[in-house]
Amino acid sequence: MGVSNKTPEFLKMNPIGKVPVLETPDGPVFESNAIARYVTRLKGDNGLYGSSPIDYGHIEQWIDFASMEIDANLITWYRPRMGRATYLPPVEEAAISALKRALGALNTYLASNTYLVGDSVTLADIIMTCNLYLGFSLLMTKSFTTEFPHVERYFWTLVNQPKFRKIFGDVKQTEAVPPIQSAQKPKESAKPKAKEQPKKEAKKEPEKPKEEAEEEAPKPKPKNPLDLLPPSKMILDEWKRLYSNTKTNFREVAIKGFWDMYDPEGYSLWFCDYKYNDENTVSFVTMNKVGGFLQRMDLARKYAFGKMLVIGSEPPFKVKGLWLFRGQEIPQFVIDECYDMELYEWTKVDISDEAQKERVNQMIEDYEPFEGQPLLDAKCFK
Fold first, then answer.
1. What does the sequence similarity comment in the record state about its family (predicted)?
2. Taking the model in full, what pTM does it have?
3. Range of 138's domain?
4. In this structure, are residues 326 and 312 in contact, taking their beta carbons and an 8 Å threshold?
């Protein structure tokens, strides 16, 4: 790297000097996915491209997903930690957040599918597994992947199939994220230093006007608008601790404590109801859907508390929730960043209405039966 791949001969095969490049009797092919497609098509009856045009479309769809949503974010996370790029915490945080969103979507799909397309391995599975291999072996610890059990099952199933195992060998999941390394600097030339010349007195630059100097000063990072609201008597972390630590007499301790703490001027309560409950026909898929929503709400953890209920003993299952948000409206950054928000009907709670207030109590408490039906699942965001 950095030597033979910069030669004129190599640049004729790949003009930007990257690897891999496959040399064929008919000419070179570069880009790993293009090489994989080429090799797959060399033998038309191998089944790796499915058996119909729609199979072909779905395989291409998952190849793009694996490359753009999984591999790209893993590489953005990995390179700075190996000293191959400057480490910038906001960039890493964004990459991990995007990766979790992608894994959440993949996890939901795999909850009811063994393979990505059809009932056997296709090129989509080969490329997806290769991309996931980087994550499992170098970045994603067990505590990270445990949120995505169907992705875990899929990955370990595939890497332990004989043909995959022949290439990957005995795969081990990383136990730690690599520590941050400084970006590597180019080595200094071994040329002898020139004889030092007498230093010339540096010309004194004229002082810049104060106004200009102030303009050049780095601007502070803009604060979240919620941080600029007047202080609230409700300390959200105190409520979360009370909720987590109350094991008995929940009504008398936690619920009473909530209303004692609640500040209707600094916070607002919202009911949410899933718009498409008719689609909730498989219990574990519905629960995974709710889990993915809570995962994507992580950006609001400092400003919110939530309860999500999956209701019913038989399909279709109903999904309803209760959310406490800082401020009087649902935060705009949550609406902008969490696409699940538009899948729910949102109604602001009127705490002067005793019936609505009791509904809040029941949702916080996981009261059962809720609205006449048993609870299939109850999840808390805190």
1. Belongs to the GST superfamily.
2. 0.49
3. 31-168
4. no
